[in-house]
Amino acid sequence: xxxxxxxxxxxxxxxxxxxxxxxxxxxxxxxxxxxxxxxxxxxxxxxxxxxxxxxxxxxxxxxxxxxxxxxxxxxxxxxxxxxxxxxxxxxxxxxxxxxxxxxxxxxxxxxxxxxxxxxxxxxxxxxxxxxxxxxxxxxxxxxxxxxxxxxxxxxxxxxxxxxxxxxxxxxxxxxxxxxxxxxxxxxxxxxxxxxxxxxxxxxxxxxxxxxxxxxxxxxxxxxxxxxxxxxxxxxxxxxxxxxxxxxxxxxxxxxxxxxxxxxxxxxxxxxxxxxxxxxxxxxxxxxxxxxxxxxxxxxxxxxxxxxxxxxxxxxxxxxxxxxxxxxxxxxxxxxxxxxxxxxxxxxxxxxxxxxxxxxxxxxxxxxxxxxxxxxxxxxxxxxxxxxxxxxxxxxxx
Length: 397
Hints:
By secondary structure, the chain is an alpha+beta fold. It has three domains: 3-238, no CATH class; 244-326, Alpha-Beta Plaits (2-Layer Sandwich), CATH 3.30.70.1380; 329-392, Ubiquitin-like (UB roll) (Roll), CATH 3.10.20. Helices cover 34% and strands 33% of the residues. The chain is built from eleven helices and 20 strands. The protein has helices spanning 14-23, 28-35, 74-83, 88-109, 124-140, 169-174, 192-201, 261-271, 302-312, 360-370, 374-392, and strands at 3-7, 43-52, 55-64, 72-73, 117-118, 144-147, 150-151, 156-159, 162-165, 180-181, 204-205, 211-220, 230-238, 244-254, 276-284, 288-297, 319-326, 329-337, 340-349, 352-358. The strands form seven sheets. It has a five-stranded mixed β-sheet. The protein has a four-stranded antiparallel β-sheet with strand order 15-16-14-17. A hairpin with a 2-residue loop joins strand 18 and strand 19. Helix 3 packs antiparallel against helix 4 (88-109), helix 4 packs across helix 7 (192-201) and helix 8 runs antiparallel to helix 9.
């Protein structure tokens, strides 16, 4: 599995994203050939190496050959996409990015989406950056894209709408619910195009994931700044050891809920695919007896777990953190024992059986039907299972 991490300590723009991709190994010649499918003969993609505060980076410049700066609206930009020879999947993802930009701009300026214009070099900067990035991500084979918290800059920027604060309103809207900050540099570091590309193609925003880095690329920004004005791209594979996985531990302390409701909440959580739920008695402020509700869940379940806890419990908030856990491979097998067919849960680590446990419900049914000790059923069936596993050298089926 190939993953990518964009380190946005100096923000991001469309040309910086392209530069980082090329610097990390994307073939510039093939990129130019792909962009020729847009059928815009008046522009040329220039790629060069530059230094930014001691770091060698790749800068991408779009040169217009006699291109009149015509302010194209969304309909015109999508028409360029539609008549191009770019493959369907690239078109659709690029269309999605353009529509996101137009949507936030329309909302901010209180205009219909079709009246929103793209000003940079008649919008050709935007279409090249967007289509090139979508194609580049696909070409590089990214299965998951992570993005750091983003340095957006500060101060003001002059544009067609006048003088606007940094981050520009459109940029801020596109980055909603994603982590941003400013290092104090008075410059627009994150552009709307850069924000739209990263938030559409990015999987997660936050800290650097555990990964084995294989390639590193630097995309240069246009200006010299007090810090290296580059976008750093790291490409590699997840660094979690085999058998390990990342999970979220979600917790909330509750001191005012009818305890009868916990059974329902736990049942709902387990039915939605969380890994575990448990309750711990605690003391809260003013020495109030309370319950700590803990949920262990896959990372992608955070939103749905949060919604359920806020709706179905009396909590006013919750917290979470990411952890790694080692997980043995598990399987259910049916073995013939003196008590009949019993299901067993087998745990394997690196192919070797490390634990075997008879299913409680099967043992309970045997104990109840045959009027024998449940403890004895457990012990006897487990001993039989271990003998079968030993004879078969773990190849139980």
